[in-house]
Structures are given as structure tokens and as C-alpha cells.
Write a structure and sequence with these properties.
The chain has two domains: about 45 residues, no CATH class; about 130 residues, no CATH class. Helices cover about 20% and strands about 35% of the residues. The chain has three helices and nine strands.
């Protein structure tokens, strides 16, 4: 079921509160019982990420996200094992494949931004990894670019080093985070 709220199309789903980048840009919010899922609009104003050139410092912040709606969590340029460079090298194609045929197609970062923002804002699952790292995951709706209908739900995992509030990795996944061991 969908409705229009403050100029943003939203889908009603009990017990879930997801804010897409378009909802954030239009200041849409979840209702008191957490039952509004903001849908994705065709003119998505995603967060613009900064640039990471060949000589850019690994600790340069290119995007920030709020974990649980309050804790600033940064995506740094990083290196091959963590941060933007890791996500770009290892998971960009995965994000492109999920985004194909949706209103987030065209650049893998649009889907990555949507996934990171929503998973960190309201994770369904959280597990401790090692060395102050936590894995957060959530299933998110993906909509058809032409019809607005749900194509599928995809699960995304985000790993964060909570001691530095930095994103280690983000990826579409086959399931939720699990405990190690």
C-alpha cells in the first residue's frame, strides 16, 4: 500500500522504518509507530560522495552516515582492505547488479549510499566481529524504475570500526550478519 506524504511516495509496512535518500532530502520521517517506509523517487537526490584520487589520503572523509540516527559514521577513502577503495574494488559490481533496472541504476554509489544509509540508521541485525568491528545488516526494498513496484528485497551488510566510527566495507549479501565462530 502506498500514499503520498509531503510530496514523497511512501509504502506502508508494519514495524519497519526506512528512510531513503529522497525521503531524507524531502524531510519525510517515519510515523510514531515506525510504520512508514519511504520509497525511492525517480529523481533521487543521493548524497554526493567526495573524490578519492590516486594520491588522496586514506583518512579523507568522502561521506558521512548516521548510525542509529545519531552517531556520525564516516566513509573514508581507505585502502584495498577497508573504506571506499575496498568497496569500489571488491563490491561495486555487486551494487551495480542489484541496482540494474531500478531508479538507482547508473552508478553503483547510488545503491551503496541507499544501503549504507538505511542499514546504519536502523539495522535489523548487529554482531560483534573482532577488534571493535561490528557487522550491521538489513533487508531493503528495491523498486522498478518504470513502475515503482517492488522488484525484490535485498539484504545488505555494513561493517563498521566503532572505535573510529569508520566504514570498513559494505556489500549486498546472501543473508544477514552472523556471529563469528
Amino acid at each position: 500500500m502506498t500514499m503520498r506524504r509531503r510530496g514523497v511516495w511512501v509504502a506502508i509496512a508494519t514495524g519497519v522504518a526506512l528512510l531513503s535518500p529522497i525521503a531524507v532530502a524531502h524531510e519525510a520521517s517515519a510515523v510514531a509507530d515506525g510504520s512508514v517506509v519511504a520509497s525511492l523517487g525517480a529523481d533521487l537526490p543521493w548524497q554526493t560522495w567526495g573524490a578519492c584520487g590516486m594520491s588522496t589520503a586514506k583518512n579523507k572523509t568522502i561521506a558521512t552516515f548516521k548510525r542509529y540516527g545519531t552517531v556520525q559514521t564516516r566513509l573514508w577513502c581507505g585502502e584495498r582492505r577497508w573504506g571506499f577503495r575496498h568497496i569500489e574494488m571488491r563490491h561495486a559490481v555487486d551494487f551495480e547488479n542489484v541496482a540494474a533496472g531500478t531508479n538507482l541504476a547508473g552508478n553503483w554509489r547510488y545503491m551503496a549510499d541507499y544501503a549504507i544509509r538505511n542499514v546504519l540508521a536502523n539495522p535489523a541485525v548487529k554482531f560483534y566481529r573482532l577488534n571493535n568491528k561490528y557487522c550491521y545488516s538489513r533487508s531493503l526494498p528495491v523498486r522498478d524504475a518504470r513502475t515503482g513496484q517492488y522488484l525484490k528485497w535485498r539484504t545488505f551488510q555494513i561493517v563498521v570500526d566503532v572505535s573510529q566510527n569508520k566504514i570498513i566495507t559494505a556489500t549486498p549479501a546472501g543473508g544477514h550478519c552472523r556471529p563469528l565462530g
